[in-house]
Amino acid sequence: MTTKLSVNVNKVAVLRNSRGGHDPDVLGAAQACLEAGADGITVHPRPDRRHVVAEDLPPLAALTARFGVELNIEGNPFAPARTGYPGLLALCEQVRPAQVTLVPDSDGQLTSDHGFSFQDDTTALSAHIAAFAALGCRVSLFVDAGVTGLERAAAMGAHRIELYTGPYAEAFAAGDAGDALRLCADTARRAQAVGLGVNAGHDLSQANLGMFLQAVPDVLEVSIGHALIGEALYDGLDATVRAYLAITGGH
Question: Would the N or C end of the chain have less CB density within 10 A of its end CB?
């Protein structure tokens, strides 16, 4: 099957914000990725406004609509609104992304490094899922490989999970990815058995993506940003996106 590639452009915004102004242009980078054939754009507007910010979202939504592809907005639904950040639900009400990926990251966290647990009280999470679904968004939950209670995630109304692939990437780099791959594959199969689609993301790269997709069944979408933007510094966005699409089966 073909796995869709959603390019995360947060790192372009990090570079822009480090200097101020508008360069490099996040919208221009996203357009270059879509012109190369990417299936969507992912952003994670954090409350600290460290990279993509609320003001970036309307033009990105218009761009993805023009290309007929998905906008995927990541974020923590529990993070309170504050100056410059109206909250994840308010952002999604404004631009109505095709998909929202809920992530349990904390304020100031460098990057997402763990997923939701479904063993404790999930009442509040269930209410958030319903609110995003009511906007017409597909709701994906960021989870660790090996997570239990996926039937509860399905019962709450989630449509997909996103496997946190950081541990797999670390194991791959160390030369022994077997156990991590088996855990990801088992989690994917258990999710699919209860009706959840499977996405994946975090530290995936051209080096490790092929092995992951061969081992983990029916991955619908991968979200890739850090490695892809880093590789594009050498080869350019167009060539880098096309290289990923050759791995995912997109082109």
Answer: N
